[in-house]
Amino acid sequence: MGELVDFFVRSRNFILFILLEVLCFYFIINTSNYWSATYFNTSNRYAARVLAWSNAANEYARLAQVNADLATENQRLNTQLTQLLQSKPLSPDEYKADSTFAGRFNFTVAKVVNNTTQFANNYITIDKGTNDGIRPGMGVISPTGVVGKVKVCNQHFSVITSILHSDFLVSSQLVKAKEIGSAKWDGGDPHLIKLNDIAISRDKPIAKGDSVVTSEFNSTFPPNVLVGRVRSVGIQPNQTFHDITLNLATNFSNLSFVYVVENRLKDQQEQLEKQVESEK
C-alpha cells in the first residue's frame, strides 16, 4: 500500500497533467458543434471496428460447435436418404425392398482425432468406441464419400483402416457405364485411386468425369456412396482391362468428421453366405 502511495506522490504532476488534458477535451467537445460531431463520428467508427473484430473472434471460437452441429444434422439426413433410396422404387416395375432391409443402415457421427496419408498403409483414429456402439468391420464415410472400415476399437476410440491402404478394396460401380469393379489405392497420390477389373467393351465406353459409387455387392457400405470421379482412362498392357484412375471424393488432408455405418443385417447375411460356402 505504501508503494502505491509513493507512486502517486512521485507521479502527481503527470497525473494532474492527464486529468487537465481530459478536462480540456471534454470542454472542447461539449462547447463546439464541429468537434462534437467529429468526436461522435470517429468514436462510432472505431467502436464499430472493435465490435466487428469481437464478433469475428466469437464466430471463429464457435466454429467447432457449428461443425459438430452440421455433422449431427448430416448424420440424420444420411439415415433418411439411405432409407428413402432403398425403399422407394424409381419406376412402377422396379423392385422395392421391404422396410427392414431398407432401414438396415444406421449412422454414428464421430470426430477424427488422428489421420495419416503419407504411408503405404494409413489409418484414422476417431473419438467413438464400443461405448457408442462401434464395432470392427463397420464402414466409415465422410460427407463427400468413402473413408474406410473400422479395424479395432476400445471403449472410447476406434482405429479405421483408411481407403488409402494397400490392402483395402471396395466394390464400386461406374454410374453411366454400369460396370462394377474394385477401387484400390496404389500407394501414390492420396488424392487418386485406381478402379480395377473393368473389362474393355465397345458397348460401354468409359467417360472422363463419370462418377464411381459403392455397388450393391457389399455389406459394409450403403450403395451409391461416392468413391470418386474418373480422371483418366487408358488400356492395361494385357489389352483386357481398362487402366482407370479416379479423383478421390474424400479429401483426407482436411478430414474432420466421419460417419460410422452400421449394417444391422450384416451378421445375418455373412452367416448365411459362410454356411453356403462351407457346404460346397
Automatic annotation (TrEMBL):
Tree of life domain: Bacteria
Record's keyword terms, sorted: Cell shape, Coiled coil, Membrane, Transmembrane, Transmembrane helix
InterPro entries in the cross-refs: Cell/Rod_1 (IPR042177), Cell/Rod_MreC_2 (IPR042175), MreC (IPR007221), MreC_beta-barrel_core (IPR055342)
Entries under Pfam families matching the protein: MreC
Protein name: Cell shape-determining protein MreC
Lineage: Bacteria, Pseudomonadati, Bacteroidota, Cytophagia, Cytophagales
Native source species: Spirosoma utsteinense
Recorded coiled-coil stretches: 60-87
Residue ranges of the TM segments: 12-29
Domain Rod shape-determining protein MreC beta-barrel core stretches: 112-262
Family: Belongs to the MreC family.
